[in-house]
Amino acid sequence: MKQGVDRVLVLAPHTDDGEFGCGGSIAKFIEEGKEVYYVAFSTAEKSVPRGLPKNILEVEVKAATKRLGIPPANLIIYKYEVRKLNYIRQEILEELVKMKKEIAPDLVFIPSPNDLHQDHQTVAVESIRAFKQTSIMGYELPWNNITFHTHGFIKLNKTHVDKKIFALKSYESQSHRDYAAEDFILSWAKTRGIQIGCQYAETFEVIRWIIE
Protein backbone atom coordinates (compact mmCIF):
# COMPACT_ATOMS: atom_id res chain seq x y z
CA MET A 1 0.00 0.00 0.00
CA LYS A 2 1.23 3.46 -0.85
CA GLN A 3 3.08 5.15 1.94
CA GLY A 4 1.84 8.58 2.92
CA VAL A 5 -1.85 7.82 2.34
CA ASP A 6 -3.63 9.54 5.19
CA ARG A 7 -6.77 10.92 3.54
CA VAL A 8 -8.92 8.78 1.26
CA LEU A 9 -11.84 9.89 -0.91
CA VAL A 10 -14.40 7.37 -2.18
CA LEU A 11 -16.60 8.57 -5.04
CA ALA A 12 -19.84 6.66 -5.60
CA PRO A 13 -22.19 7.59 -8.45
CA HIS A 14 -25.03 6.00 -6.47
CA THR A 15 -25.37 4.98 -2.86
CA ASP A 16 -23.83 1.52 -2.28
CA ASP A 17 -21.37 1.65 -5.22
CA GLY A 18 -18.50 2.54 -2.89
CA GLU A 19 -19.32 -0.23 -0.44
CA PHE A 20 -19.52 -2.84 -3.19
CA GLY A 21 -16.38 -1.63 -4.94
CA CYS A 22 -14.08 -0.99 -2.00
CA GLY A 23 -15.96 -1.59 1.26
CA GLY A 24 -13.31 -3.95 2.58
CA SER A 25 -10.56 -1.47 1.79
CA ILE A 26 -12.52 1.30 3.51
CA ALA A 27 -12.76 -0.88 6.62
CA LYS A 28 -9.01 -1.53 6.45
CA PHE A 29 -8.12 2.14 6.02
CA ILE A 30 -10.28 3.15 8.97
CA GLU A 31 -8.76 0.39 11.10
CA GLU A 32 -5.35 1.87 10.26
CA GLY A 33 -6.48 5.32 11.38
CA LYS A 34 -6.85 6.87 7.92
CA GLU A 35 -9.36 9.62 7.32
CA VAL A 36 -12.00 8.44 4.83
CA TYR A 37 -14.54 10.57 2.99
CA TYR A 38 -17.47 9.12 1.05
CA VAL A 39 -19.39 11.00 -1.64
CA ALA A 40 -22.62 9.73 -3.22
CA PHE A 41 -23.85 11.69 -6.22
CA SER A 42 -27.35 10.24 -6.50
CA THR A 43 -29.78 8.64 -4.10
CA ALA A 44 -31.51 7.11 -7.14
CA GLU A 45 -35.00 8.02 -5.98
CA LYS A 46 -36.51 7.04 -9.34
CA SER A 47 -35.09 3.52 -8.97
CA VAL A 48 -36.43 2.83 -5.48
CA PRO A 49 -38.61 -0.32 -5.42
CA ARG A 50 -42.34 0.38 -5.29
CA GLY A 51 -43.78 0.79 -1.82
CA LEU A 52 -40.60 2.09 -0.19
CA PRO A 53 -39.91 5.70 0.85
CA LYS A 54 -38.20 7.69 -1.89
CA ASN A 55 -35.41 8.68 0.52
CA ILE A 56 -34.68 5.09 1.57
CA LEU A 57 -31.25 4.98 -0.10
CA GLU A 58 -30.20 8.17 1.68
CA VAL A 59 -31.16 6.56 4.99
CA GLU A 60 -29.36 3.35 4.04
CA VAL A 61 -26.10 4.98 2.93
CA LYS A 62 -25.92 6.81 6.25
CA ALA A 63 -26.32 3.51 8.08
CA ALA A 64 -23.86 1.65 5.83
CA THR A 65 -21.07 4.20 6.08
CA LYS A 66 -21.55 4.40 9.84
CA ARG A 67 -21.09 0.62 10.04
CA LEU A 68 -17.82 0.97 8.15
CA GLY A 69 -16.69 3.65 10.60
CA ILE A 70 -16.93 6.71 8.38
CA PRO A 71 -17.87 9.78 10.49
CA PRO A 72 -21.18 11.39 9.48
CA ALA A 73 -19.31 14.64 8.81
CA ASN A 74 -17.27 12.83 6.15
CA LEU A 75 -20.33 11.67 4.22
CA ILE A 76 -21.43 13.95 1.38
CA ILE A 77 -24.70 13.21 -0.40
CA TYR A 78 -25.89 14.85 -3.60
CA LYS A 79 -29.34 14.25 -5.06
CA TYR A 80 -28.67 14.37 -8.77
CA GLU A 81 -31.14 12.42 -10.90
CA VAL A 82 -30.18 8.80 -11.54
CA ARG A 83 -29.08 7.92 -15.10
CA LYS A 84 -28.71 11.61 -15.97
CA LEU A 85 -25.34 12.54 -14.46
CA ASN A 86 -23.91 12.93 -17.97
CA TYR A 87 -26.28 15.87 -18.50
CA ILE A 88 -24.64 17.81 -15.67
CA ARG A 89 -21.05 16.69 -16.00
CA GLN A 90 -19.67 20.25 -15.78
CA GLU A 91 -21.49 20.82 -12.49
CA ILE A 92 -20.11 17.53 -11.18
CA LEU A 93 -16.62 18.49 -12.30
CA GLU A 94 -16.87 21.79 -10.44
CA GLU A 95 -17.95 19.97 -7.27
CA LEU A 96 -15.03 17.57 -7.64
CA VAL A 97 -12.59 20.45 -8.02
CA LYS A 98 -13.96 21.88 -4.75
CA MET A 99 -13.37 18.50 -3.07
CA LYS A 100 -9.81 18.48 -4.33
CA LYS A 101 -9.19 21.81 -2.61
CA GLU A 102 -11.18 21.24 0.57
CA ILE A 103 -10.46 17.55 1.24
CA ALA A 104 -7.08 17.29 -0.52
CA PRO A 105 -7.11 13.47 -0.64
CA ASP A 106 -3.98 11.37 -1.05
CA LEU A 107 -5.91 8.61 -2.80
CA VAL A 108 -9.21 8.65 -4.69
CA PHE A 109 -11.39 5.60 -5.44
CA ILE A 110 -13.67 5.90 -8.46
CA PRO A 111 -15.68 3.54 -10.65
CA SER A 112 -13.67 1.85 -13.38
CA PRO A 113 -13.52 3.93 -16.57
CA ASN A 114 -14.61 0.66 -18.25
CA ASP A 115 -17.87 0.59 -16.28
CA LEU A 116 -20.84 0.43 -18.67
CA HIS A 117 -23.29 2.45 -16.56
CA GLN A 118 -23.60 5.99 -17.92
CA ASP A 119 -23.56 7.57 -14.43
CA HIS A 120 -20.48 5.58 -13.45
CA GLN A 121 -18.67 6.60 -16.63
CA THR A 122 -19.45 10.26 -15.98
CA VAL A 123 -18.11 10.19 -12.43
CA ALA A 124 -15.03 8.25 -13.54
CA VAL A 125 -14.10 10.61 -16.37
CA GLU A 126 -14.76 13.82 -14.46
CA SER A 127 -12.89 12.49 -11.42
CA ILE A 128 -9.81 11.72 -13.50
CA ARG A 129 -10.00 15.24 -14.89
CA ALA A 130 -10.38 16.83 -11.45
CA PHE A 131 -7.81 14.69 -9.62
CA LYS A 132 -5.20 14.29 -12.35
CA GLN A 133 -2.46 15.17 -9.85
CA THR A 134 -3.66 12.62 -7.26
CA SER A 135 -3.34 8.83 -7.04
CA ILE A 136 -6.52 7.26 -8.42
CA MET A 137 -7.77 3.68 -8.35
CA GLY A 138 -10.85 2.37 -10.17
CA TYR A 139 -12.95 -0.12 -8.25
CA GLU A 140 -14.54 -3.26 -9.62
CA LEU A 141 -18.27 -3.83 -10.08
CA PRO A 142 -18.31 -7.08 -12.11
CA TRP A 143 -21.93 -6.80 -13.17
CA ASN A 144 -21.10 -3.53 -14.97
CA ASN A 145 -17.69 -4.44 -16.43
CA ILE A 146 -17.12 -6.27 -19.70
CA THR A 147 -13.40 -5.73 -19.21
CA PHE A 148 -11.52 -4.96 -16.01
CA HIS A 149 -7.75 -4.76 -15.56
CA THR A 150 -6.61 -6.15 -12.21
CA HIS A 151 -3.61 -3.85 -11.91
CA GLY A 152 -3.68 -3.32 -8.16
CA PHE A 153 -4.81 -5.22 -5.08
CA ILE A 154 -5.44 -4.41 -1.44
CA LYS A 155 -5.07 -7.37 0.91
CA LEU A 156 -7.90 -7.86 3.38
CA ASN A 157 -8.58 -10.08 6.35
CA LYS A 158 -11.89 -11.69 7.30
CA THR A 159 -12.76 -8.80 9.61
CA HIS A 160 -12.59 -6.34 6.72
CA VAL A 161 -14.79 -8.52 4.51
CA ASP A 162 -17.25 -9.05 7.35
CA LYS A 163 -17.52 -5.28 7.82
CA LYS A 164 -18.16 -4.87 4.11
CA ILE A 165 -20.95 -7.44 4.26
CA PHE A 166 -22.37 -5.85 7.43
CA ALA A 167 -22.39 -2.43 5.76
CA LEU A 168 -24.10 -3.74 2.63
CA LYS A 169 -26.81 -5.35 4.73
CA SER A 170 -27.92 -1.79 5.53
CA TYR A 171 -29.28 -1.65 1.99
CA GLU A 172 -32.40 -3.66 2.62
CA SER A 173 -34.03 -2.00 -0.38
CA GLN A 174 -31.39 -3.61 -2.60
CA SER A 175 -31.30 -7.04 -0.97
CA HIS A 176 -33.16 -8.60 -3.92
CA ARG A 177 -30.16 -8.12 -6.19
CA ASP A 178 -28.10 -11.26 -6.82
CA TYR A 179 -24.81 -9.45 -6.31
CA ALA A 180 -25.91 -8.32 -2.82
CA ALA A 181 -25.88 -11.93 -1.57
CA GLU A 182 -23.43 -12.55 1.26
CA ASP A 183 -21.99 -15.71 -0.31
CA PHE A 184 -21.21 -13.82 -3.53
CA ILE A 185 -19.44 -10.98 -1.74
CA LEU A 186 -17.37 -13.43 0.30
CA SER A 187 -16.44 -15.57 -2.72
CA TRP A 188 -15.60 -12.44 -4.72
CA ALA A 189 -13.10 -11.39 -2.04
CA LYS A 190 -11.73 -14.94 -1.86
CA THR A 191 -11.23 -15.07 -5.62
CA ARG A 192 -9.27 -11.84 -5.63
CA GLY A 193 -7.24 -13.01 -2.65
CA ILE A 194 -6.29 -16.27 -4.37
CA GLN A 195 -4.94 -14.27 -7.31
CA ILE A 196 -2.27 -12.71 -5.09
CA GLY A 197 -1.72 -15.56 -2.63
CA CYS A 198 -3.70 -14.34 0.36
CA GLN A 199 -7.07 -15.16 1.86
CA TYR A 200 -9.06 -12.09 0.77
CA ALA A 201 -8.54 -8.98 -1.35
CA GLU A 202 -10.13 -6.30 -3.47
CA THR A 203 -8.73 -5.41 -6.87
CA PHE A 204 -8.51 -2.10 -8.70
CA GLU A 205 -7.50 -0.54 -11.97
CA VAL A 206 -4.54 1.72 -11.26
CA ILE A 207 -5.38 4.89 -13.13
CA ARG A 208 -2.73 7.15 -11.61
CA TRP A 209 -0.16 6.27 -8.96
CA ILE A 210 2.04 8.96 -7.44
CA ILE A 211 4.92 8.03 -5.15
CA GLU A 212 6.07 10.75 -2.79
3D architecture notes:
By secondary structure, the chain is α/β, with parallel strands linked by helices. The chain has one domain (7-208): Rossmann fold (3-Layer(aba) Sandwich). Helices cover 38% and strands 20% of the residues. The protein has helices at 17-31, 56-68, 89-102, 118-130, 158-168, 182-195, and strands at residues 7-14, 35-42, 75-77, 107-111, 135-139, 152-156, 200-208. Helix 1 (17-31) crosses helix 5 (158-168) and helix 3 packs across helix 4 (118-130). The protein is globular. The model has no long low-confidence stretch (mean pLDDT 96).
Protein traits:
single chain, seven-stranded mixed beta sheet, alpha/beta, 212 residues, 20% strand, 6 helices, Rossmann fold
Annotate the secondary structure layout.
Elements: E1 7-14, H1 17-31, E2 35-42, H2 56-68, E3 75-77, H3 89-102, E4 107-111, H4 118-130, E5 135-139, E6 152-156, H5 158-168, H6 182-195, E7 200-208
Strand content: 15-25%
**In angstroms, what is the radius of gyration?**
16 Å
- The CATH class is identified as Alpha Beta
Element order, helices and strands? EHEHEHEHEEHHE
Q: What is the assigned CATH homologous superfamily? A: LmbE-like
Strand count, sense and barrel status of the largest sheet are: 7 strands, mixed
The percent of residues in helical segments reads 25-40%
